[in-house]
Design a protein that fits this description.
Blueprint lengths: L1 E3 L6 H12 L9 E4 L2 H7 L3 E4 L15 E6 L13 E4 L18 H9 L4 E3 L8 H6 L4 E2 L3 H4 L1
Parallel strand pairs: 1-2, 2-3, 3-4, 4-5, 5-6, 6-7
Helix pairs in contact: 1-2
Length: 151
């Protein structure tokens, strides 16, 4: 899955980029989601939208065949993510690719989130080859990130 996370692009450029990625040859195996812009995702034929923390409830965007994912930075906010196809829970560890003043949630937050919500969880934030297994052992459906895949 590729998340188009270009918060500062003007809408026209974001739409052009989205259309280009959606039209990429052999894309059938890669899903494209647009960060926080359901309108652009729908208009450009992307597979879905990724909602930032603080966005409207995921259930507002659900429609057949349209993937809705959501970021969550507090276990207490699990209910807000109801209706999402999956949640990116972060930061599990101290992020390695950027400065982040939020305290790491720790691996135990994954299991606690799952107890509060049936939505599958992807672990994000400081994920490395050394700690990725701990996330899936705690119940994460998978991992997301920059550092892990850049290694």
């Amino acid at each position: 899955m590729i998340q188009i996370r270009e918060r500062d692009l003007p809408v026209r450029e974001l739409a052009e980029l989205t259309r280009e990625l959606v039209a990429f040859p052999n894309r059938r195996v890669t899903r494209i989601v647009v960060n926080d812009r359901a309108d652009v995702a729908i208009a450009c034929g992307a597979d879905g939208v990724h909602l930032r923390d603080g966005s409207p409830a995921a259930s507002r965007f659900k429609r057949p065949g349209f993937l809705v994912t959501a970021s969550c930075h507090r276990v207490e906010d699990a209910g807000r993510c109801e209706g999402a196809d999956y949640v990116v829970l972060a930061p599990i560890f101290t992020p390695l690719s950027k400065d982040d003043d939020r305290p790491p949630l720790g691996v135990s937050a994954i299991a606690e989130f799952i107890r509060r919500s049936p939505v599958p969880v992807l672990a994000l934030g400081g994920i490395t080859r050394e700690n990725a297994r701990a996330c899936t052992d705690a119940g994460a459906a998978g991992i997301a990130g920059i550092t892990y895949f850049a290694q």
